Amino acid sequence: MARSFAVVTDSTADLPGEWRKRYGIEVVPLKVLFGHETFRDGVDMTSDEFFTRLAASTSLPTTSAPSPGEFAEVYRRLAKDHDGCISIHIGAKLSATVEAARVGAESVAGFKVNVIDSQTVSMPMAFLCSVAAECASLEEATAAVEKRVPSCRVLALLDTLRYLEMGGRLSRAQAMIGTMLDLKPLLLVSENAEIKPVDRVRTRTRAIQRMIEFVRGEQPLERLAVMHAQAGDEAESIAKTLRPEFAGLEVPIGQIGCVLGTHTGPKALGLGYIKK
Questions:
Q1: Domain chopping of the chain, boundaries
Q2: Contact 92, 99 (CB under 8 A)
Q3: Residue 191 burial by CB count (10 A; 0-12/13-18/19+): exposed, middle or buried?
Q4: What 8-state DSSP symbol labels residue 67?
Q5: How does pLDDT run across 2-61, given as a tens digit for each residue?
Q6: Beta bridge partners of 64
Q7: Positive or negative: CA dihedral 272, 187, 201, 258
Q8: Is the pTM of this model over 0.90?
Q9: What is the DSSP secondary-structure string of 34-57?
Q10: Distance of CA 260 to the CA centre of its chain
């Protein structure tokens, strides 16, 4: 797509590969660290490889943002063929990525970079990138994205509390009780990257139904996607249920990447959307 400006995001957008080609979006990877080994999200390690390793790991991997220098390198390369750039990243409350992008942009003289804090993660970020890519100018893209940022939401269903416990976000006792009762937590990432508990549902089947009921109550929507971590069949089933109810929306299915997967664990499901 011939545009005067470039669109940049990071790997936590879980950008479908086909979108990357369709819109010509540049993706800067975050990193996942297993002990002393470092892997670039989606470059050195795929989602499937990550979850296989995660299942065998006795300790939780850590994650890190790209450095300002890595962003600067990308912006310098893009400056050769573009007049400017919009750079859309994971919420500042969730990661240092957006700050690294701002610092990196400041070191590239003569190239306009509009860095956006998406205040969210995963497919809503991918949607913001597609919105930007469909605009005619950098100014139009920036206005269109900033307008939608407060309306981005992610509803996540976790299959296990183990990874929240390993990450220090839940006590061992809470995790044990939740596991014994087979409780499935539903979490909402809302405006300003606030993570709020929506519900704890007994059994996965009921939790999936609760997800669908919740998003029905959020209408009207401008965009909607289903996300999953090694739960493709269930994601397809959810999308099949929702598509007739949200006529006119594409309702793509995205795969949760390594960085977000560190916190959700395998078999997580999600709905990412932008409210009208």
A1: 5-149, 151-275
A2: yes
A3: middle
A4: P
A5: 589 999 999 999 999 899 989 999 999 999 999 999 999 999 999 999 999 998 888 789
A6: 31
A7: positive
A8: yes
A9: ETTEEEEBTTTB-HHHHHHHHHH-
A10: 7
What is the CATH number that goes with domain 5-149? 3.40.50.10170
The CATH architecture assigned to 151-275 reads 2-Layer Sandwich (3.30)
| E-only strand ranges, the chain | 5-10, 25-28, 31-34, 37-40, 62-64, 84-89, 112-117, 152-157, 183-189, 195-202, 221-228, 253-255, 269-275
User: Tokens in use for 104?
Assistant: 């990196």
Instruction: Provide the β-strand partners of residue 183.
Output: 202
How far apart are the C-alpha atoms of 40 and 66, rounded to whole Å? Answer: 9
What residues pair up with 269 in beta bridges, in sequence order? 157, 228
Identify whether the C-beta of residue 268 lies closer than 8 Å to the C-beta of residue 228: yes
